[in-house]
Automatic annotation (TrEMBL):
Transmembrane segments: 84-107, 119-137, 143-162, 183-207, 219-238, 273-291, 311-330, 339-357, 363-380, 401-425, 431-452
Pfam families referenced in this protein's UniProt entry, alphabetically: Sugar_tr
Keyword Metal-binding: no
Chief localisation class: membrane
Name recorded for this polypeptide: MFS transporter
Residues annotated as domain Major facilitator superfamily (MFS) profile: 47-456
Cell compartment(s), UniProt: Cell membrane
Keywords, sorted A to Z: Cell membrane, Membrane, Symport, Transmembrane, Transmembrane helix, Transport
Membrane topology term: Multi-pass membrane protein
Record keyword Lipid biosynthesis present: no
Region (Disordered): 1-22
Ranges of compositional bias, category Basic and acidic residues: 1-16
């Protein structure tokens, strides 16, 4: 047994400590590596479970609005033309994203100063409370203009909460993960996000199938929002039982947490911030076009029945969840940069042909295309969380991730349903959302081409 002052013995054939296979001591280039902090396997399992459940709850709450957009437009904008009402509903969806960069600064500062766990425990309470309150808002016919105003306030609160969730959960998992499995661990975040979307899609599809249009408009749409309260309390309880990450605890013990993470981020890491914001673009547009806006597109443009639209998206989400963890593992094996490049190229080449097939209205083909698009998206989404967490040092990791991720999502993700609907209306081209997604892929490809590989490097 070596003392703290003696070097560890290394298995020269494999470059690893035989007693601890999770800690690689020699990099592929032959440079010495510092072993990962030892974390009990049971602790890591609790971290993964808590991160999955907490993120699942947040994004179920957040996504239900998108799946019930058509019904919500009738409740809060009943006097408008159906297309204008839908645009107004998606405008509220987009406006809630405008607060996300502000939330990114807040949660990044809070998470880098106070701790990842505390930030995540607080954000889930805000999200659940705001979602529950949406269920209680009277309709436009009861309180007039105050109905959409209150809806806007709750959507802003949801956006503020969501701005800290994805980044915080990803940083939390990456800082707990073994070096060689950071991609797999971080992929739990988009997997849980998609699971939240899946439940939202299932419930929305069930409601539209089982209830009459009148019952759905009068009271049925409120039911998923009411689930937020008990689910949020469960998620909050689970998160409160965890310790903060080893990386953050080490900073706290050494009193190295900086007072102004944002200032340090923009002064010393602006290149990484700019690069990350560009790489996120494909995720921002792709995620909300393919997994949130698509049921509305299939119903209003392709003229598919609502039940079939939700079913197709549900199947796509199931395959997305199945693929996403595998993509995380592939990014550990082949590297983040390579996976992100492949994702961008796939979208550039295949998106418009995929939308052309969607426009045929053939349900079986629509189902296959939904699965294809979801699988392509996992190439990006399964890699992105670990990539964003790895390019920023621990002192500003939460801030760097939150600001870059939420900036792109605010400008291009939250506006994607609105832009897609507007492009179709203004150009008369049903393929417009596909071209928009191609443009986002090109920008993302350019950004990632300037990135350095981060998967085999020790966290800074």
């Amino acid at each position: 047994m070596s003392t703290p002052h003696e070097p560890q013995k290394v298995d020269e054939r494999h470059g690893a400590d035989p007693a601890n296979p999770d800690t690689s001591l020699i990099s592929l280039s032959g440079q010495q590596r510092i072993p990962d902090q030892k974390v009990a396997s049971a602790t890591r399992k609790k971290v993964v479970t808590a991160s999955f459940i907490g993120n699942f709850v947040e994004w179920f709450d957040y996504a239900v609005y998108g799946y019930l957009a058509i019904t919500i437009s009738k409740v809060f904008f009943p006097e408008a033309d159906p297309q204008v009402a839908l645009l107004s509903t998606f405008a509220l969806f987009a406006i809630s994203f405008l607060v996300r960069p502000i939330g990114g600064f807040f949660w990044g500062h809070y998470g880098d100063r106070v701790g990842r766990r505390e930030a995540l425990a607080l954000s889930i309470l805000i999200m659940s409370a705001a979602t529950f309150c949406i269920a209680l808002i009277p309709s436009y016919s009861v309180i007039g203009i105050w109905a959409p105003i209150l809806l806007l306030v709750m959507r802003v609160a949801q956006g503020f909460s969501a701005s800290g969730e994805y980044a915080g959960a990803s940083a939390f998992l990456v800082e707990y993960a073994p070096r060689r499995k950071r991609g797999l661990y971080a992929a739990v975040v988009p997997a849980s996000t998609a699971t939240g979307l899946l439940l939202g899609s299932l419930i929305a599809g069930m409601l539209t199938t089982l209830l009459s249009e009148e019952d759905l408009t009068n009271w049925g749409w409120r039911l998923p929002f009411l689930l937020a309260a008990p689910m949020g309390l469960i998620g909050r309880y689970i998160r409160s039982k965890l310790e903060d990450t080893p990386a953050f605890r080490e900073l706290a013990e050494k009193d190295e947490a900086i007072k102004a993470p944002a200032k340090d981020l923009f002064r010393d890491h602006w290149k990484s911030l700019l690069l990350a914001s560009g790489v996120v673009l494909l995720n921002a547009v792709g995620f909300y076009v393919i997994l949130s806006y698509m049921p509305t597109y299939l119903t209003t443009v392709v003229k598919l029945p609502e039940g079939q639209s939700h079913f197709a998206t549900t199947v796509a989400l199931l395959t997305y969840i199945f693929f996403i963890l595998g993509t995380g593992m592939l990014s550990d094996r082949f590297g983040r940069k390579r996976m992100l490049i492949v994702a961008s190229v796939c979208f550039i080449v295949l998106t418009v042909p995929a939308f052309m097939i969607l426009d045929t209205g053939n349900f079986l083909m629509i189902l296959l295309i939904q699965i294809l698009l979801g699988g392509m998206l996992t190439l990006n989404d399964g890699t992105l969380p670990s990539f964003l967490a790895e390019i920023f040092p621990t002192k500003v990791r939460y801030s760097g991730f939150a600001v870059s991720f939420n900036l792109s999502n605010a400008l291009f993700g939250g506006t994607a349903p609105f832009v897609a609907t507007w492009l179709i209306q203004s150009t008369g081209n049903d393929l417009a959302p596909g071209f928009y997604l191609v443009a986002a892929s090109i920008v993302s490809l350019i950004a990632v081409s300037f990135a350095v590989e981060t998967s085999r490097k020790k966290l800074r």
